[in-house]
From TrEMBL:
InterPro entries: Elafin-like_sf (IPR036645), WAP_dom (IPR008197), WAP_four-disulfide_core (IPR050514). Residues 45-94, 95-143, 144-190 form the WAP domain. It comes from the Eukaryota. This is WAP domain-containing protein. It comes from Gopherus agassizii (Agassiz's desert tortoise). Pfam families: WAP. One of its GO terms (molecular function) is serine-type endopeptidase inhibitor activity. One of its GO terms (biological process) is antibacterial humoral response. One of its GO terms (cellular component) is extracellular space.
């Protein structure tokens, strides 16, 4: 029960690993969620994924305005409890733009990142650009599509020194006919 936390923080670590592949691998009621570039077990949230549609104009304080919900869990399916401009109602979340953000490791510098986010959601970006993490802050940028095909089964790692020296994090840095796959020790374009 529950959903992956919507605001679960960026980049818990720098290794971009899958510490779980499904909820069944998590203890108790935890869920296997994407957190930054890692998949890991997290406590579930009652807030459903997605963002509420923008309302038209200024919220009304009219006595006729009534709310039909107070929290997402009161809404059916993937609907969220959103401000309608006249009370809170269950509404379909705004659709994300197509495509996937490239996985980006955070900049590893001695000085902490102090850049401000340029966007919070895809709707803040022009045309088909998506709001993606760019190493230090959220920026509008192009999306990528996962390359077709499937990765071969990963072999056991015979050289532990190669572990985590990833050549890629996702398909966007690989040639069109290649995929970014786990080879046992690290991720490579194959």
């Amino acid at each position: 029960p529950g959903f992956c936390p919507v605001h679960n923080g960026l980049y818990f670590s720098y290794d971009c690993e899958a510490r779980c592949q499904g909820d069944g691998e998590c203890p108790r009621d935890q869920k296997c969620c994407l957190r930054g570039c890692d998949y890991e077990c997290l406590a579930p949230s009652e807030e459903k994924p997605g963002i509420c549609p923008l309302t038209d104009g200024i919220p009304s304080s009219s006595p006729w305005c009534k709310s039909s919900c107070a929290e997402d869990k009161e809404c059916a399916g993937d609907q969220k409890c959103c401000d309608s401009g006249c009370g809170r109602t269950c509404q379909a979340p705004e659709r994300e733009k197509p495509g996937t953000c490239p996985k980006q490791k955070p900049w590893q510098t001695l000085v902490p990142c102090n850049e401000q986010d340029a966007c919070a959601h895809d709707r803040d970006c022009p045309r088909q650009e998506k709001c993606c993490f760019a190493g230090c802050a959220m920026r509008c940028g192009p999306h990528y599509k996962e390359h077709p095909g499937a990765c071969p089964r990963a072999k056991a790692c015979s050289d532990p020194r190669q572990r985590h020296s990833n050549q890629c994090l996702d398909d966007h840095v690989c040639e069109r006919h290649e995929k970014c796959c786990d080879t046992g020790c690290r991720r490579e374009c194959v």
